[in-house]
Amino acid sequence: MRKLLLLPLFLLFIFSIQAQEQEEQSDSLRKNAVKIFIDCEYCDMNHIRREIPYVNYVRDIKEAQLYIREKRQQTGSGGSEYSFFFTGQEEFEGLTDTLIYTSRPDDTRDFTRDGRCDMMKMGLMRYVARTPIFKEVSIRHMGEAEEEEVSDRWNNWVFEMETRPRFESEESLKEFSFWNSFNANKITPEWKIEIGVDQRLTRTKYIYDNETNISDKTQIQFENLIVKSLGEHWSVGTKIELLTSTFNNAKFNADIFPTIEYNLFPYSESTHRQLRFAYGIGVSLNQYNDTTIYGKIAENLGQQQLQIAYQVQEKWGSINVSLEGSNYLHDFSKNRLELEGSISIRIIKGLSFSVRGRVAQIHDQLSLVGEELSEADILLQLTEMASSFNVDGSLGLTYTFGSIFNNVVNPRFGNGRRYYR
Question: For the chain, which end, N or C, has fewer CB atoms within 10 Å of the first or last residue's CB respectively?
Fold first, then answer.
């Protein structure tokens, strides 16, 4: 009888030992999995962790054996080109690769998310294959690949139309706005042609001192950019902008700027770094709704622009800075200088610092209305006001610490401190 009672305990002991051995084997495989650091701005990390569970996700780049950076650029069709840069570290030092996934403009977010994740899986294989966890990964083919010749009846042209009505209402203030836009783009390695038309109407109805007042703010803007490639470093083009706007006191405004651009780095390296210098000189044709502060109702002026743009994204962080200056040729004191940029730097393990901002020195508001503005014009921002500068910006400091391994996904009650995200 005693032997019969001991038999279940003995079997339970054997099963527990086997389970422990399997768990230890699984833990051993997990410890030997590739430690990766993913650097991208708009990645769904929960989705990636679910789809790629055979790696270790670390929060510090110095702990990673593989650094993956994603860079996005818009394509001529209106879709996106996602470049994935794989850089091996530690025992994978020297193992680098670059893969590209391109989405179409009509792809859903879910379809694009899956495509980006699949491309990341493919890039990981050469690293996973060098670890014991390769046994948990299988590769299969979805179907027969067929060669297909694509015929483009649109000749690389892409068109987009959008309308966006908006309204807001309260007891003493009602506002209705209507925005329509049309865009046509053609982008090839040799040519870049962009055409855009925006129409905006805002009607504000407000009650003040028991009186009902109605004010309208309208704007129609046409923009055209034509660029011709001249090799890996040079481009020439023309910018054309037509504007009619009650806010800017523009009955009709036309700016035409032939421009030349030089990129210190080859355009093929644009996902890594850019340092572009663009200079344009042209004419500004102006007819005003009301007489300006300079007593003008119409004038034609020469103008020049210089822009310097620097962009770099590496493992240590990213920098995006642009400096633009312009002035009217008849009077160099009528000028504008704008500096805009963002910098994100990883300082030490878990600590990163970011700066974003814009500052502008303004001395070229030639279209300002000469007569005194009404209280409604000022409060409802119906007319542009004089200003010698504009500043906006932000600072950020982030420090993260704790476990460097976290492959678990739990989406309950949203992500982080916010309930809906």
Answer: N
